[in-house]
Automatic annotation (TrEMBL):
Keyword Transmembrane: yes
Segments forming domain Phospholipid/glycerol acyltransferase: 111-235
Transmembrane residue ranges: 7-24, 44-71
Record carries keyword Transmembrane helix: yes
Gene: TMEM68
Protein name: Phospholipid/glycerol acyltransferase domain-containing protein
Amino acid sequence: MSNGNQSCLFGDGAYFVVCIFHAFEEWSGIGPVEVYLSYLEYLAWVFTPLVVVFILPFLIVILLYLSILFLHVYKHKNQLREAYSNNLWDGARKTLATLWDGHGFIWHGYEIHGMEKIPNKGAALIVYYHGAIPIDYYYFLANVIIQKGRIVHSVADHFLFKVPGFKLLLEVFSVIHGPQEECVKALKSGHLLGISPGGVREALLSDETYPLLWGKRKGFAQVAIDSKVPIIPMFTKNVREGFRSLGNLRFFRWSYEKFRVPMAPVYGGFPVKFRTYLGDPIPYDPNISAAELAEKTKQAVQALIDRHQIIPGNVLRALLERFHCRHKEK
């Protein structure tokens, strides 16, 4: 043993390290260290894809924060102008819209079918299916700014207004937390307004079978009636294949129902094909009730799902659609 130690001491650096490993093996009695290193390497190889799919959703959050940073820089650069002038943010909105449109084109091959149904002027209520992360809606907003030169006011859940740093972004892009009076005010002022009746519940608890989780919500329909505006149904194909939620697991479902906080993990970020479809506008009808209009709108969105989405959704198939166009027919 003493001869071995002496050889280690007088050997080169690499040999000395090998000796240390062998000494550790003898001392601990755990066997060859190389076996455990190989096992760790195998575990790293197995779990790396899982780590990646959970990290990718955070890239969207990073992009949102970069958008906020740009707005702050833009605001500082133009601080001599009138602080809340509409013209102050026109350039910022168009620049960010261009960035988001580019992201959608590159990462998802994003397309919109039926953009001509969005009026060039005048009010309309856009009702859409809510994905786990509504990134398709962000792309849609960007395209409306670029193609129509219009801003779509949006209704978002209360928790979004509590996220640190989001206040400026929500203000600049006219996001409101959704009181009916505010929605009616926006529409009567001639603006476009986007809302998802399913909201956070649909985002977390819906899945690749694309169920509409609207419950008995009819407030959006009453808003359309009070504002005397048409409703435009909207759905994005493969939105659930881009990002998926673990909200259907018992613990996350219970925590949402109990605390109304969206804590369910979201994974994905897959570069699947996104196609947004806009249905025919549902015209204002003074003789229809809010419940009837809500049901009619739900059927219109469901019809878009039935016509364009293959159910259950499949990530691999949605990825292949980037290269091979396959449309589902009714």
